[in-house]
Amino acid sequence: MNFTFDTELDSFREQVRDFVRSHLPEHIGRRMRQKSFAPDDLHTAEWHGILAKKGWSVPAWPEEYGGTGWSALKQFVFNDECAALDAPVFPWGPRDMVGPVIYTFGSDYLKETYLPMIREGRYYWCQGFSEPGSGSDLASLRTTAVRDGDRYRVNGQKIWTSGAAVARYGFFLVKTDTRCKPQQGISFLIIDMKAPGVTVRPIAQIDGDDHLCEVFLDDVEVPLENLVGEEGKGWTYAKYLLDHERTGSSYIFWNKRELAKAREIAESEHRCGQPVMAMEPFRRRFAGVEAELTALEWSVLRELAGEKTRWNATAVASSLKVRGAQLQQKITDLQMEALGRKGLRYIAPEEMVDFPATALWPDYFVGKSSVALITRAATIYGGTVQIQRSLIARLAFGV
Q: What is the pTM of this model?
């Protein structure tokens, strides 16, 4: 079978490619190549501002809130080209998670106050869901929000909160009623991360970064107008949020870009007088991963094209997440294998920017060991593979 995009999408791809090539600042592209994941908040905000001026910063939003009106396939092409050219994608939190919840369920005040901030990339946002002992089982969270006049008083702790140290705002699940069933007592709040009583403690990571954080909430005052939707409906909004971007957890664009980098490394590095890519065992492994990635990409495209299947949508999302997470690890394993002993050298994140590339230590080497280390967590974050498989078993096969 010959799967191809139509000519309109091919033309659009060229348009996006030309724009990114001519507008992406070199220092941002370089930093993205080194870290593979989004660079620091200033870089992502700078690029998001460039996209905002073009009208492309929130492509999936409704046009009335600044969206593009693109089809799902056009959005796929846009994200595909941005990733391939090392342009950072603004963090999912504000653009693809809390943004859609606000414009779907939020008050006019929330829409007018926060949607322009997100659209223009003015501030970084974090997601306060997981807690110590309440990761995959979010319904068991214990952070409380008690109503006190025209505000809530929030007390509790969150953990693994990505980017909390640089975030200005966060969207949090909290308990507003502890007397009913767990899911029915959860509400969805927007919290100013600079408010008194908010303490953020970065967590040292295996890759040398500290993007993940603990967040302590000690009698934090949150205005009532920062409640999203109705009190006690937070579980419903959280499910909507997690289902809104069903294909994003496949990391399809990241995987495609990193496999291309694995090929670059394997074609440049030599063993016994020949490129690593020419060696039969490596070439066989690479071809297997490439085939898996192609299958994943077409599974994502089938979902975006709205193909009707008998499978539960959440089970499909979990399937994409499982395979995407596994491929992150397989692809970085290929990169490390191609680098050989060079992969043993570690460069701290703060040293990457000014690292002097040489013939022995080329540019493509920088940051690869760090990325390989942090992707060990790919099968944990966003819902562990074990939990995802349980969801698939129950929702798709009834077991």
A: 0.88
Q: Which residue has the tokens 């107008």?
A: 225
Q: Which of 233, 255, 279 is the last residue of a domain?
A: 233
Helices and strands, counts by H and E, the chain: 14, 9
Please classify residue 358 by burial: count the beta carbons closer than 10 Å to its beta carbon, then call 0-12 exposed, 13-18 middle and 19+ buried.
Answer: exposed
Which of 68, 90, 112 is the last residue before a domain boundary? 90
Q: Which DSSP symbol is given to 142?
A: -
The maximal CA–CA distance of the chain, rounded, in angstroms, is 75
Assess whether pLDDT exceeds 60 at residue 85. Answer: yes
**Neighbouring-strand partners of residue 235:** none
| Residue 289 and residue 177 share a domain | no
| Distance from C-alpha of 176 to C-alpha of 183, rounded to nearest angstrom | 11
Quick: pLDDT tens for 325-374.
999 999 999 999 999 999 998 888 778 877 888 888 888 888 899 889 98
What angle is formed at CA 271 by the lines to CA 269 and CA 275, rounded to 5 degrees? 50
CA distance 195 to 220: 7
The single residue of 221, 245, 290, 292 carrying the catalytic annotation is: 245
CA distance 123 to 186: 26
The full DSSP string for 13-48 is HHHHHHHHHHHS-HHHHHHHHHHSS---HHHHHHHH
Structural Rg of the chain based on CA atoms: 22
**Mean pLDDT of all residues in 79-96:** 86
How many residues in total does the chain contain? 399
Give me the domain span that covers residue 86: 7-90
Residues 228 and 250 in one domain: no
Find the Cα–Cα–Cα–Cα dihedral 310, 298, 322, 342, rounded to 10°: 170
**Rounded CA gap, 62 and 65, in Å?**
6
Interacting residues of 76 by C-beta distance below 8 A, sequence separation 6+: 300, 301, 304
- Give the model's pLDDT for residue 30: 84
Q: Write the CB contacts of 351 (distance below 8 Å, at least 6 apart in sequence).
A: none
In a domain? residue 238: no
Residue 307 bears catalytic tag = no
Provide the pairing of β-strand 213-223 with 186-192: unpaired
Q: What is the CATH number of the domain that holds 380?
A: 1.20.140.10
Tokens at 203, concatenated: 């967590």
pLDDT tens for 26-42 read 988 888 887 766 656 66
